[in-house]
Task: structure prediction
Amino acid sequence: MKSAANRSFCPRLSAAKHLLPLIRGHVVAAASQFPLATALDMFPIVEDGLFGYELIPDRETHTYLIIGCNAQNEAVLRKTSYGVGAPNAVQLVAVNGRFLSRSERAARYSVQRRDSRFPNWGAAAESTWAQLRNLFPDRPRHARALGENVRGLEEALSIAHSYLVHRDPFIQFFGLPNEAELGFALTGAGGESGELLFQRPDIWTLRWNAPAEVLHKSWSVVVGDLPDGAHGDPHFPDRRAHRRRAHSRRASDCGRSPDPWLGKDRRHTRGRRAMDQHYS
Result:
Protein backbone atom coordinates (compact mmCIF):
# COMPACT_ATOMS: atom_id res chain seq x y z
CA MET A 1 0.00 0.00 0.00
CA LYS A 2 1.21 3.51 -0.74
CA SER A 3 2.39 5.57 2.21
CA ALA A 4 0.08 8.47 1.32
CA ALA A 5 -2.91 6.16 1.45
CA ASN A 6 -1.84 4.73 4.80
CA ARG A 7 -1.31 8.16 6.36
CA SER A 8 -4.96 8.91 5.67
CA PHE A 9 -5.88 6.26 8.26
CA CYS A 10 -3.95 8.15 10.94
CA PRO A 11 -5.56 11.26 12.44
CA ARG A 12 -4.36 14.79 11.92
CA LEU A 13 -2.95 16.41 15.04
CA SER A 14 -5.96 18.75 15.09
CA ALA A 15 -8.36 15.78 15.05
CA ALA A 16 -6.46 13.94 17.78
CA LYS A 17 -6.43 16.93 20.14
CA HIS A 18 -10.19 17.32 19.70
CA LEU A 19 -11.40 13.73 19.58
CA LEU A 20 -9.44 12.08 22.40
CA PRO A 21 -10.65 14.42 25.19
CA LEU A 22 -14.18 14.19 23.76
CA ILE A 23 -14.18 10.39 23.95
CA ARG A 24 -12.59 10.34 27.40
CA GLY A 25 -15.13 12.83 28.74
CA HIS A 26 -18.07 10.68 27.64
CA VAL A 27 -16.50 7.47 28.97
CA VAL A 28 -15.75 9.12 32.34
CA ALA A 29 -19.34 10.36 32.52
CA ALA A 30 -20.67 6.85 31.86
CA ALA A 31 -18.22 5.37 34.38
CA SER A 32 -19.38 7.72 37.14
CA GLN A 33 -22.76 6.01 37.19
CA PHE A 34 -21.50 2.46 37.74
CA PRO A 35 -17.99 1.92 39.20
CA LEU A 36 -16.18 -1.27 38.17
CA ALA A 37 -14.34 -3.82 40.28
CA THR A 38 -11.19 -3.19 38.25
CA ALA A 39 -8.99 -0.25 37.38
CA LEU A 40 -8.80 0.77 33.72
CA ASP A 41 -6.19 2.51 31.64
CA MET A 42 -6.94 4.23 28.33
CA PHE A 43 -4.45 4.09 25.48
CA PRO A 44 -4.79 6.02 22.19
CA ILE A 45 -4.75 3.69 19.22
CA VAL A 46 -5.26 3.52 15.47
CA GLU A 47 -6.36 0.02 14.46
CA ASP A 48 -7.75 -1.05 11.10
CA GLY A 49 -9.60 2.14 10.25
CA LEU A 50 -10.59 3.07 13.80
CA PHE A 51 -9.04 5.84 15.91
CA GLY A 52 -9.80 6.28 19.58
CA TYR A 53 -9.05 4.83 22.99
CA GLU A 54 -8.52 1.21 23.95
CA LEU A 55 -9.63 0.42 27.51
CA ILE A 56 -7.24 -1.96 29.27
CA PRO A 57 -8.21 -3.48 32.65
CA ASP A 58 -5.70 -4.50 35.31
CA ARG A 59 -7.35 -7.94 35.43
CA GLU A 60 -6.98 -10.86 33.03
CA THR A 61 -9.54 -10.96 30.26
CA HIS A 62 -9.96 -12.35 26.74
CA THR A 63 -12.10 -9.47 25.52
CA TYR A 64 -10.86 -5.94 24.78
CA LEU A 65 -12.74 -2.80 23.82
CA ILE A 66 -11.87 0.19 21.66
CA ILE A 67 -14.15 3.21 21.45
CA GLY A 68 -13.30 5.42 18.54
CA CYS A 69 -14.15 7.10 15.26
CA ASN A 70 -14.16 5.44 11.84
CA ALA A 71 -13.53 6.96 8.40
CA GLN A 72 -17.20 7.96 8.18
CA ASN A 73 -16.90 9.99 11.42
CA GLU A 74 -19.17 7.55 13.22
CA ALA A 75 -18.87 6.65 16.90
CA VAL A 76 -17.85 2.99 17.04
CA LEU A 77 -17.35 0.40 19.77
CA ARG A 78 -15.02 -2.41 18.69
CA LYS A 79 -15.09 -5.62 20.70
CA THR A 80 -12.25 -8.09 20.11
CA SER A 81 -12.44 -11.51 21.76
CA TYR A 82 -9.70 -14.13 21.76
CA GLY A 83 -9.99 -17.90 21.98
CA VAL A 84 -13.62 -18.21 20.87
CA GLY A 85 -13.23 -19.41 17.28
CA ALA A 86 -15.18 -22.26 15.68
CA PRO A 87 -12.80 -25.26 15.41
CA ASN A 88 -14.65 -26.79 12.44
CA ALA A 89 -14.52 -23.71 10.22
CA VAL A 90 -12.57 -23.73 6.94
CA GLN A 91 -9.02 -22.75 7.81
CA LEU A 92 -5.96 -21.39 6.01
CA VAL A 93 -3.32 -24.09 5.46
CA ALA A 94 -0.31 -22.08 4.28
CA VAL A 95 0.95 -18.49 4.17
CA ASN A 96 3.57 -17.35 1.66
CA GLY A 97 4.37 -20.95 0.79
CA ARG A 98 4.88 -22.05 4.40
CA PHE A 99 2.55 -24.63 5.93
CA LEU A 100 1.03 -23.55 9.23
CA SER A 101 1.21 -25.81 12.25
CA ARG A 102 -2.00 -26.98 13.89
CA SER A 103 -1.55 -24.48 16.73
CA GLU A 104 -0.95 -21.64 14.25
CA ARG A 105 -4.10 -22.52 12.32
CA ALA A 106 -6.11 -22.69 15.54
CA ALA A 107 -4.76 -19.33 16.68
CA ARG A 108 -5.64 -17.60 13.42
CA TYR A 109 -9.27 -18.59 13.69
CA SER A 110 -9.88 -18.03 17.37
CA VAL A 111 -10.25 -14.24 17.22
CA GLN A 112 -13.64 -12.58 16.87
CA ARG A 113 -14.14 -8.87 16.23
CA ARG A 114 -17.36 -6.92 16.16
CA ASP A 115 -17.90 -3.22 15.43
CA SER A 116 -21.06 -1.51 16.69
CA ARG A 117 -21.97 1.98 15.39
CA PHE A 118 -23.82 4.60 17.44
CA PRO A 119 -25.57 7.89 16.65
CA ASN A 120 -23.50 9.85 19.21
CA TRP A 121 -20.63 9.52 21.67
CA GLY A 122 -22.87 9.37 24.71
CA ALA A 123 -24.58 6.23 23.43
CA ALA A 124 -21.23 4.69 22.44
CA ALA A 125 -19.75 5.38 25.89
CA GLU A 126 -22.76 3.92 27.69
CA SER A 127 -22.56 0.76 25.58
CA THR A 128 -18.83 0.53 26.25
CA TRP A 129 -19.40 0.71 29.98
CA ALA A 130 -22.22 -1.84 29.81
CA GLN A 131 -19.84 -4.26 28.10
CA LEU A 132 -17.24 -3.68 30.80
CA ARG A 133 -19.79 -4.30 33.54
CA ASN A 134 -20.62 -7.62 31.89
CA LEU A 135 -16.92 -8.53 31.76
CA PHE A 136 -16.30 -7.53 35.40
CA PRO A 137 -19.56 -8.05 37.31
CA ASP A 138 -17.95 -8.19 40.77
CA ARG A 139 -19.10 -5.66 43.31
CA PRO A 140 -16.57 -2.77 43.31
CA ARG A 141 -14.89 -1.91 46.61
CA HIS A 142 -14.57 1.76 45.66
CA ALA A 143 -14.70 4.00 42.63
CA ARG A 144 -11.43 4.27 40.74
CA ALA A 145 -10.12 7.12 38.62
CA LEU A 146 -10.43 6.61 34.88
CA GLY A 147 -8.43 8.25 32.12
CA GLU A 148 -5.80 9.85 34.37
CA ASN A 149 -2.99 8.19 32.43
CA VAL A 150 -3.82 10.17 29.27
CA ARG A 151 -4.69 13.64 30.55
CA GLY A 152 -1.11 14.85 30.11
CA LEU A 153 -1.01 13.49 26.58
CA GLU A 154 -4.19 15.34 25.65
CA GLU A 155 -2.72 18.58 26.96
CA ALA A 156 0.52 17.93 25.06
CA LEU A 157 -1.40 17.34 21.82
CA SER A 158 -3.10 20.70 22.20
CA ILE A 159 0.20 22.51 22.80
CA ALA A 160 1.93 20.69 19.94
CA HIS A 161 -0.90 21.66 17.60
CA SER A 162 -0.50 25.31 18.58
CA TYR A 163 3.10 25.15 17.29
CA LEU A 164 2.16 23.25 14.10
CA VAL A 165 -1.29 24.68 13.40
CA HIS A 166 -0.40 25.52 9.79
CA ARG A 167 1.22 22.14 9.18
CA ASP A 168 -1.32 19.96 11.03
CA PRO A 169 0.66 16.72 10.55
CA PHE A 170 -0.57 13.16 10.87
CA ILE A 171 0.15 11.48 14.22
CA GLN A 172 0.56 7.75 14.76
CA PHE A 173 -0.73 5.77 17.75
CA PHE A 174 -0.11 2.08 18.45
CA GLY A 175 -1.82 1.59 21.82
CA LEU A 176 1.29 0.86 23.88
CA PRO A 177 1.32 1.66 27.62
CA ASN A 178 4.54 3.69 27.51
CA GLU A 179 4.27 4.96 23.95
CA ALA A 180 4.62 8.59 25.01
CA GLU A 181 8.15 7.83 26.23
CA LEU A 182 8.93 6.07 22.95
CA GLY A 183 7.63 9.04 20.99
CA PHE A 184 4.59 9.63 18.77
CA ALA A 185 5.72 9.98 15.16
CA LEU A 186 4.48 12.98 13.17
CA THR A 187 4.44 13.05 9.37
CA GLY A 188 3.55 15.83 6.96
CA ALA A 189 1.81 15.52 3.61
CA GLY A 190 5.02 16.55 1.86
CA GLY A 191 7.36 14.13 3.61
CA GLU A 192 8.10 16.31 6.66
CA SER A 193 8.68 14.44 9.89
CA GLY A 194 8.68 15.02 13.61
CA GLU A 195 8.06 13.52 17.01
CA LEU A 196 6.16 14.26 20.21
CA LEU A 197 8.04 12.74 23.14
CA PHE A 198 7.53 12.52 26.91
CA GLN A 199 10.37 12.46 29.44
CA ARG A 200 9.70 11.84 33.10
CA PRO A 201 8.73 13.43 35.33
CA ASP A 202 6.79 16.06 33.37
CA ILE A 203 8.62 17.24 30.22
CA TRP A 204 7.18 17.04 26.70
CA THR A 205 9.34 17.70 23.66
CA LEU A 206 8.20 18.50 20.12
CA ARG A 207 10.58 18.08 17.20
CA TRP A 208 9.68 19.00 13.63
CA ASN A 209 11.92 18.86 10.57
CA ALA A 210 10.80 20.44 7.32
CA PRO A 211 12.76 22.13 4.48
CA ALA A 212 11.62 25.59 5.54
CA GLU A 213 11.09 24.95 9.24
CA VAL A 214 13.05 23.19 11.98
CA LEU A 215 11.33 23.24 15.35
CA HIS A 216 12.46 22.02 18.76
CA LYS A 217 10.21 22.95 21.70
CA SER A 218 9.93 21.63 25.24
CA TRP A 219 7.45 22.34 28.03
CA SER A 220 6.28 20.99 31.36
CA VAL A 221 2.84 19.54 32.12
CA VAL A 222 2.08 18.79 35.77
CA VAL A 223 -1.16 16.90 36.21
CA GLY A 224 -1.96 18.46 39.55
CA ASP A 225 -1.95 21.90 37.97
CA LEU A 226 -4.64 21.01 35.45
CA PRO A 227 -8.23 21.92 36.32
CA ASP A 228 -10.97 19.29 36.23
CA GLY A 229 -11.97 18.61 32.65
CA ALA A 230 -8.63 19.79 31.25
CA HIS A 231 -6.33 17.54 29.31
CA GLY A 232 -3.46 16.06 31.13
CA ASP A 233 -1.56 13.13 32.88
CA PRO A 234 1.59 12.04 31.07
CA HIS A 235 2.28 8.86 33.03
CA PHE A 236 1.65 5.62 31.15
CA PRO A 237 1.66 2.60 33.49
CA ASP A 238 4.06 -0.06 32.29
CA ARG A 239 2.37 -3.14 33.70
CA ARG A 240 2.80 -4.84 30.34
CA ALA A 241 6.56 -4.38 30.03
CA HIS A 242 7.93 -3.06 26.75
CA ARG A 243 11.61 -2.55 26.12
CA ARG A 244 12.28 -2.10 22.41
CA ARG A 245 11.77 1.04 20.41
CA ALA A 246 10.54 0.54 16.84
CA HIS A 247 7.64 1.73 14.76
CA SER A 248 4.96 -0.97 14.56
CA ARG A 249 2.64 -2.31 17.20
CA ARG A 250 1.02 -4.80 14.86
CA ALA A 251 3.23 -5.27 11.82
CA SER A 252 3.36 -9.01 12.36
CA ASP A 253 -0.42 -9.17 12.83
CA CYS A 254 -0.94 -8.19 9.20
CA GLY A 255 1.92 -10.20 7.77
CA ARG A 256 3.43 -7.02 6.32
CA SER A 257 4.44 -3.53 7.29
CA PRO A 258 1.60 -1.22 6.23
CA ASP A 259 3.88 1.78 5.83
CA PRO A 260 7.58 2.39 5.08
CA TRP A 261 8.27 3.84 8.54
CA LEU A 262 7.26 0.59 10.24
CA GLY A 263 10.22 -1.27 11.68
CA LYS A 264 10.51 -3.92 14.36
CA ASP A 265 7.45 -4.99 16.25
CA ARG A 266 7.00 -2.73 19.30
CA ARG A 267 5.06 -5.29 21.30
CA HIS A 268 6.48 -7.06 24.33
CA THR A 269 3.53 -6.73 26.66
CA ARG A 270 1.01 -8.48 28.87
CA GLY A 271 -2.69 -8.81 28.17
CA ARG A 272 -4.04 -8.14 24.69
CA ARG A 273 -0.60 -7.21 23.37
CA ALA A 274 0.73 -10.61 24.36
CA MET A 275 -2.29 -12.31 22.80
CA ASP A 276 -1.70 -10.45 19.53
CA GLN A 277 1.68 -12.15 19.29
CA HIS A 278 0.08 -15.60 19.49
CA TYR A 279 -2.88 -14.88 17.24
CA SER A 280 -1.05 -13.18 14.38
User: Anything to note?
Assistant: The longest strand covers residues 40-47.
